[in-house]
Design brief:
Chain lengths: 455, 455
């Protein structure tokens, strides 16, 4: 049954790639208002594609922010299971654009990789699902199971409206299980089941001092420098052993069992010094870098700015300083409680002479974990292995997908994370790419999986 | 003799103001290449004005950077002293331009102040000198003393080429004493003799980590965050008691005598909480804010940046982080030695896992002090008091004027700092302004001073 479908994907390789490139060429950056039209263009692309494929009901749903594409396929019959397929069509900003070797919105294949913003995260992976649906419809005249499609345009800005929509339209999105392809494998062509994700929370710290930038000669010595005050605050939050020094931060962390530390040790992941160019890795005292990235919480400064940033010197005491911080959380930790602990710590250490404000980001998610033994997980692993010709490994990862927490929270259904990205994809960075191998073997995995699931 | 000259300045008030506004309207920002033409326009304005006034020799001298205006007036005869008048026609950048209440390059008078970039620092004060020269020539047919004019276009970028020029053309710039009006009074209409200036030195710290921005979920826990590393470095350089914690920083500082602490205590300077909007001042442990600003060294972060600075959240570990630091130095401290101490400290505390580079700024100056009892200083104080109707006070200030150190170093002549700015001028900030009172009484002071000097 799947042979014809696989053959179709082979035959149509070139026209499918053209279609994917058309999708990737739309600069659907969600963080910036200037791309509003492109966001709609990307949503319309999916709507048109799903209509062409022959879905029963296809809608561009308006939200308070960017539109969500919803679709249903119900012809597999009442006996067949229903899958909720989630993905996102929005992408990260491209800055600094000068570091891209080719235009981020003019896809280009180099050395077996397709370079474009969104090629891996997540337009490329969404497209694989659509192509597989097309292949099934054109060869079998139907899909093996019922499908609900939910492709949003706000993932990169924290899926601001999705939770409310999923809650309000609970009936509409109800399914037997969910599949998400917005993650990766631990190495190229290494089938990987992701059974745990970290949670997420964030704050912004704003330090304000004088009401205007001051001449450092005239005022230096009388005025607290907001950048120095902020540096003191930040340095007090994590020490050089990479241990977060905020009171209570680790209180609710589920301890890492000896068994799981062994499992983690067995994963042969990427060599960070090669993939990131650092001379040496660091990690929380008492834990390896693999343990820390997969299963221990982290705190990172994502951005910081204040004062003069141009050419040359400007001898000022700046009037303000800002830092953006996010934490990745593990099972047991509550994002809202962590925000509260961060705020309390900051207020406690804030120096005199400046005003320190903590803005709590709305975006947050609890960590997620599923049992690797679940049948839907085992079938996914088998499909993966068949397509890639290699045993599947089971890992936890540090990435956060808020929608995973929400689907679990609202629907309490199993969630299968079928990711095909690789460590070299440079998500969120210049020169994002996706291996052509992942496209082909990934689609093969999906063809097998839909067949397995109905057995 | 000075009455006619003073009357001329009164009569021509309106046309002189028009002329000043024309000068201030030229955006002669020296830090940025895009204003190269404006820099030349400002230099040409001065050249034309000096020619109109009737100087004997007027030249726009090319340098490796922005041009320098040189002029001579030699008609006062061999018995009369020769003054070297130094000023600068370049200005600071105007960013953030949205905070200006009127266009920085369309001068506007509001509440007795002239608002424009450069109105105080230093185009406005340079113009006062030119107007007084004009007034003398039009009323007396000559100037009371011989004059050499040196008005540069690179003060705000560290007077990069001036030292070399002053050294190479030693004969040309040789004079009996120097006058500089690029500073201020401690309060509006409070005649102030500035007998000491701080020195200056600067560094830039560049911390680089991964070779591209990383996804904080995938890499958080294995990679040292350059912004956190930089925060640790910066926090280690000054504690919350405002004491610089760099080994050896205070070693060569001349101790502050009890007598001088008393003099400083008697100065009734600005109320920093009013002029800067801070709730409370801070200062080095063991010293008052006045003592710290006037006579103790300082270390300030002038600017800092790294990672994502746009709207919303971007969950990255940034690939780099930068901080710009300058120190204000007091007599005894050597700028180059201080740079060396800063670099050694930074290398000592730099965390593993990142690369830390210290770039030493070329711009630097030793602190300067002159005896308040010198005759040229006493005559200046008398002229000030006569014009403003108030006793002159003697202060040291935290600002640095590298040219002061160089003139002393190369020519070893007395330097008189005749500044007319006020604490509310917002130098280097949005809404820079200069009191109209300072223009009028300042020009009066100069008319008296040139008369006094020849006695």
């Amino acid at each position: 049954m799947s042979e014809k479908t696989l053959a179709y994907l082979q035959e149509k390789r070139s026209s499918l790639l053209d279609k994917l490139n058309e999708f990737l060429s739309i600069p659907s950056v969600s963080t910036s208002k200037e791309h509003k039209e492109d966001i709609h263009k990307a949503a319309d692309f999916i709507v048109n594609y799903l209509n062409e494929i022959g879905f029963d009901k296809v809608e561009k749903q308006q939200t308070k922010g960017h539109p969500l594409v919803y679709a249903e396929y119900n012809e597999a019959g009442p006996e067949a299971p229903t899958v909720l397929f989630y993905g996102h069509y929005d992408v990260q900003p491209v800055d600094p654009v000068e570091l891209w070797e080719s235009d981020p919105f003019q896809p280009e294949i180099r050395d077996g990789r397709l370079y474009a913003r969104g090629s891996s995260d997540d337009k490329g992976q969404v497209f694989m699902h659509l192509a597989v649906f097309e292949a099934y419809m054109r060869t079998e005249g139907k899909l093996p199971l019922n499908v609900k499609v939910c492709i949003e345009g706000e993932e990169e800005i924290g899926s601001e409206n999705l939770y409310e929509i999923l809650q309000e339209k609970k009936e509409m999105f109800q399914a037997d299980f969910a599949v998400i392809s917005d993650s990766g494998m631990i190495a190229k062509n290494q089938p990987t089941i992701l059974y745990g994700l970290k949670g997420f929370t964030g704050i912004e710290i704003n330090v304000t001092g004088p009401d205007h930038d001051l001449h450092s000669g005239m005022y230096g010595g009388a005025i607290r420098n907001p950048l120095m005050a902020l540096s003191h605050i930040l340095a007090s939050m994590k020490n050089q052993d990479e241990v977060v020094t905020v009171d209570g931060f680790y209180n609710d962390v589920e301890p890492l069992s000896g068994h799981e530390r062994k499992l983690i040790d067995q994963v042969h992941g990427e060599d960070y010094t090669i993939s990131t160019g650092v001379k040496e890795t660091v990690s929380e005292k008492g834990y390896t870098a693999k343990e820390h990235t997969m299963a221990r919480p982290t705190l990172e400064i994502n951005g910081m700015f204040g004062g003069y940033q141009g050419e040359g010197t400007k001898t000022i005491i700046p009037s303000s300083a800002t830092a953006k911080i996010t934490c990745r959380l593990v099972p047991g930790q509550d994002p809202v409680k962590i925000q509260q602990l961060l705020e309390e710590h900051i207020n406690k250490v804030a120096p005199t002479g400046v005003n320190v404000e903590v803005k709590k980001e709305k975006l947050s998610a609890k960590a997620y974990k599923v049992e690797p033994e679940h049948a839907l997980i085992q079938k996914a692993a088998a499909s993966y292995s068949k397509a890639f010709g290699k045993d599947t490994v089971y890992v936890r990862m540090g990435g956060s997908i808020p929608v995973v927490e929400w689907i679990e929270d609202i629907y309490n259904i199993p969630i299968v994370l079928l990711g095909f990205g690789t460590p070299d994809d440079r998500l969120h960075s210049p020169n994002e790419s996706f291996p052509m191998d992942s496209f082909e073997k990934g689609m093969e995995t999906l063809v097998y999986y839909w067949n397995e699931v109905i057995k």
